[in-house]
Structures are given as structure tokens and as C-alpha cells.
From TrEMBL:
Cofactor list: Mg(2+)
Protein name: Mandelate racemase/muconate lactonizing enzyme domain-containing protein
Domain Mandelate racemase/muconate lactonizing enzyme C-terminal: from-to ranges: 126-228
Organism (species): Glonium stellatum
Record-linked SMART domains: MR_MLE
Pfam families: MR_MLE_C, MR_MLE_N
Signal peptide (residue range): none
NCBIfam families in UniProt: PRK14017.1
Example of a GO biological process term: amino acid catabolic process
Length: 381
């Protein structure tokens, strides 16, 4: 056993927030509490919990998780759960490193040796898709994801949807699969049309066809398309997930490990999904710590389908990417659409603390972009 002596967080470019926990025996672990566009809010939550959890037993991961959830009175939501994720992931990393085993060994042991992965192409205003897809194929990917559209009005011209269909056809012509992310920017009048238009071309899935607050609309849409419906990045706990499973309107759940309270809650959500025959495809356009944490859960989940990874994603500017901040970036090598399951202790990655500390100095918070329509109205990003 070892008591927590120090909890630190580091805001690093391009838009990530790392957490380091140390105990009185010299053991350390790393977590990721990234919440895109809301870094300062998560940092404020971490400030309050840091003071609280100094002196707790680092091994008591579930006790600390439940303390964070049940004694806050106001619970859940993206800020609390992202802060909790940073702590939870770091505690799992610390414990597994202390024992000299991968985290997945503490979760029951692996059920696979390789992890199927996909990467982004296209950016916020998708274009030049075929060349980007070819580049991903050369990197070893067989599946990609892209935004379906640029910004749309509530009821826009049907012609705005044509390009999305052509982009999907271009990727499919290369022998690759493609998920289409509606990104919640497509409202119901357009989402119905786009889902129908894409269906003959067999997208891997359609993601966030409507915003999660419109569960009735998602259920109705699920009944008029055979394309698998994926969602979950804006659900923050098993309680948020439950109504979507009960409604039978989701085929692929995409929880974000940095937004759902970490490895502990992701594991529970995966088990819930298995009971409903829903696949697990974790959302992760984030950093190497979050991805490594996902892989630990992917390794033990029978219903795992495919893992998002942020290698070369369009927002990674300034030189930092998935291969940054670690000393063994070779773990992210993609071959035949898969990465090998890491075998090292803890998360299986070695954090370059010197680089983290250097680049965290004066790091600016990332601000979520927005779209403005031709009438000056705000549109969903």
C-alpha cells in the first residue's frame, strides 16, 4: 500500500490535460483529463480534488471513484467526469506499474492480441478525401472516419449532402471502410435525408446523426436506416448511456475514456453494452495517455469493435501529435488495420516527463471553433 503524496496536472498542446499521481513509496502513474475547449474548468475541479485526496491510499481506486461521484452532490457531466478520468487512469497506471503488469491483467486478462483502429481524414471542412485516404492506407489503416458535411442550416439545400456521398464512394473505391460523422451539426430534417443517401454505399457507421439530447429523434432515425448508428462521446456515465441502450437506438457506443470517469467507468459501460449486443468503439481524438487507457479496456472487452486514434488528426498543429510526450511511440505502429496490444506495465507507454513539463509552460487553452451561417446565426460545430 502507498498513500497519495502528490497530484499534478499539465496543460499541453495541442489541447490535452495530463495528470500525474505519486505515492509515498515512490510509485507514479499518469492519466489524461482532456476536455476539448474546457481545460480551465477541469483544472478547477482538479484543484479541489487534489487537496482532498492527498493522504488517500493510492490502491483504493474504486473508493476514490465513488467518493468523487457520490459526495459531490452535483454529479456527472463533462467537467467532473473528465477530472475524475485523469485521476482514475493515473491510479490504475500507478497500481499496475507497482505490480509490474499491464492494466488489462488487473481487469481480468486480455481476450485479443491486436486492436483494430481507424484514423481521421478530411478535417472540419472536408475535402481532398481521396488523397488523404490513400495516405492513411499507406500508414497501414484500412478504416477511416470523416465529417459528413460542413456546417448546415436546420433545413438546408439537399444539394449540400451530395458531396458527402461522393466522398464515401471515393474512400470505398480504395477498398477501405469509412465511418461518417454527422458531428451533431446535422439537424433532423437534413439527417433523415443524409442517412438515406449514404445507406446504399454502406458506411461503416453514421456517428452522432443527431445530438444526444434528441433521443426520440435518434430512435426514429434508427428505424428508417440499416446503417449502424454510433454515438456516445457526449455521454458521461453509465447512467447517461442506459436510456440509449433501453431505447434500442444505438448499435455502436463511443464513450470517451477521458470524459466518462476513466478506466473504471469505461469497463462498466462496456459490460452494459455487451448485455444489449451493442459494440464498443471508444471515442479518442485525444493524446497518447487516453489512447493507451482505451486500449487496456479494449483488450478485455468481448464486444470491442474498433478504436479511434488521433495520429495526424487535423487539429494537431504546432508539431505535437500522438507520438509526442512518450518515449516509446512505436507502440502506435499500424499494420493491416491493427496495432499490437502493448505488453509493458501500467498503460504500456513511457511518458516523457521532461517534454511534458517543458511544453506545459505557458500553454494556451484550446478554444472550440464555431460556425456562423450566412444569416449571422450560430450553427453547430
Amino acid at each position: 500500500m502507498g498513500k497519495i503524496t502528490n497530484i499534478e496536472y499539465f496543460r499541453v498542446p495541442p489541447r490535452w490535460l495530463f495528470v500525474k499521481i505519486a505515492d509515498d513509496a515512490g510509485n507514479v502513474g499518469w492519466g489524461e483529463a482532456s476536455l476539448e475547449g474546457h481545460t480551465q474548468a477541469v483544472e478547477g475541479c482538479l484543484d479541489s480534488w487534489i487537496e482532498r485526496y492527498i493522504g488517500f491510499e493510492a490502491d483504493d481506486i474504486e473508493h476514490i471513484w465513488q467518493m468523487s461521484w457520490r459526495t459531490s452532490f452535483y454529479r456527472g457531466g463533462p467537467v467532473f467526469m473528465s477530472a475524475l478520468a485523469g485521476i482514475d487512469i493515473a491510479l490504475w497506471d500507478l497500481k499496475a506499474r507497482k505490480l509490474g503488469v499491464p492494466i488489462y491483467q488487473l481487469l481480468g486478462g486480455k481476450v485479443r492480441d491486436k486492436i483494430k483502429v481507424y484514423a481521421w481524414i478530411g478535417g472540419d471542412r472536408p475535402g481532398d478525401i481521396e488523397q488523404q485516404a490513400k495516405a492513411r492506407k499507406a500508414q497501414g489503416f484500412l478504416s477511416v472516419k470523416m465529417n459528413g458535411t460542413e456546417d448546415l442550416g436546420w433545413l438546408d439545400s439537399p444539394s449540400t449532402l451530395n458531396d458527402c456521398v461522393e466522398r464515401l464512394k471515393a474512400v470505398k473505391s480504395l477498398g477501405m471502410d469509412a465511418g461518417i460523422d454527422f458531428h451533431g451539426r446535422v439537424h433532423k430534417p437534413m439527417a433523415k435525408q443524409l442517412a438515406k443517401a449514404l445507406e446504399p454505399h454502406s458506411p461503416l457507421f453514421i456517428e452522432e446523426p443527431l445530438l444526444s439530447e434528441h433521443i426520440g429523434g435518434i430512435k426514429a432515425l434508427s428505424q428508417i436506416t440499416s446503417s449502424p448508428i454510433a454515438l456516445g462521446e457526449r455521454l458521461h456515465s453509465r447512467w447517461d448511456v442506459r436510456p440509449f441502450l433501453e431505447a434500442g437506438c444505438v448499435d455502436i457506443l463511443q464513450p470517451d475514456i477521458s470524459h466518462v470517469g476513466g478506466i473504471s467507468e469505461m469497463r462498466r459501460i462496456a459490460a452494459m453494452c455487451e448485455a444489449y449486443d451493442v459494440a464498443l468503439a471508444p471515442h479518442c481524438p485525444l493524446g497518447p495517455i487516453a489512447l493507451a487507457a482505451n486500449v487496456q479496456v479494449d483488450a478485455v472487452s468481448a464486444n470491442f469493435a474498433i478504436q479511434e486514434m488521433s495520429l495526424g488528426i487535423h487539429y494537431n498543429v504546432g508539431g505535437q501529435d500522438l507520438s509526442s510526450y512518450t518515449q516509446n511511440p512505436e507502440v502506435w505502429k499500424v499494420t493491416g488495420g491493427y496495432i499490437d496490444l502493448m505488453t509493458g506495465p501500467g498503460l504500456g507507454i513511457e511518458v516523457d516527463e521532461a517534454q511534458v513539463r517543458r511544453l506545459s509552460k505557458d500553454a494556451k487553452p484550446w478554444v472550440s471553433p464555431g460556425f456562423i451561417g450566412p444569416g449571422g446565426e450560430i450553427r453547430e460545430w
